[in-house]
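Title: Prediction job returns without error message
Component: structure pipeline
Severity: low
Priority: P3
Assignee: unassigned

Description:
Job completed but the reporter wants confirmation the result is attached to the right record. Sequence as submitted:
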Amino acid sequence: SMTSFLTQDRSLNFLAFAQHFEGRGDVGIAVQHYALDKIDGFDTAGNPAGSFSDQELALGLSYANLIDYRFRYGITVRGLWQGLAEARALGCGGELGIQFQPSLASGFTLGLNLQNPVGTLTWDSGRQDVVAPNLKLGLADKTLNGRLAIAADMDLPLGADGSPSPHLGAELWLLEGLGVRGGLNRQSPSLGATWAYQFYQIDYAWEWDQNQLGNSQQLSLILRF
């Protein structure tokens, strides 16, 4: 579970459940909700006409397994819903992920994630929008007996708009159950920490936003049972 503390009347929340089945793989279900409230509205003459909101909801079903000890894969199918002022839309999307770890003796891994290769969103007016596809390439390595992890990835938009977006991060476990991390989202830095005890895990993240939308914070809770 995760909730975000955002500026500009924005909100972002996430809830998921996953279950491992020995010899059969892993199944997960997740719901995401994003909202932008108090959007100023205007009529065709440019006069103020109150305010409206944008509500977006995604419900995903995921399956993951391994081919052998080196190759792992996962797939998600996702239903989409959006409400913008009085308009409503339904759609679909999905993701395909592949991870390669050359040796179990090493923490080095490579990953590829194809997002929304065939995603669409159909409005009640009949208009149909294509959900922008994206290809994410990444790598990670662990050192210091697994206590330090370093990762980097690159978003490569496959649509007509957008430019490559790099990300870099590192995580260090100071003590058992206590970790800190830092990263870069393009040029925006972020910091975070984790406290884990028995089957509880609490994560906190802070990101400095250079797009004049204000800094953001995220708080998440993980339960393992």
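Comment from assignee: result matches the submitted record. The radius of gyration is 20 Å.
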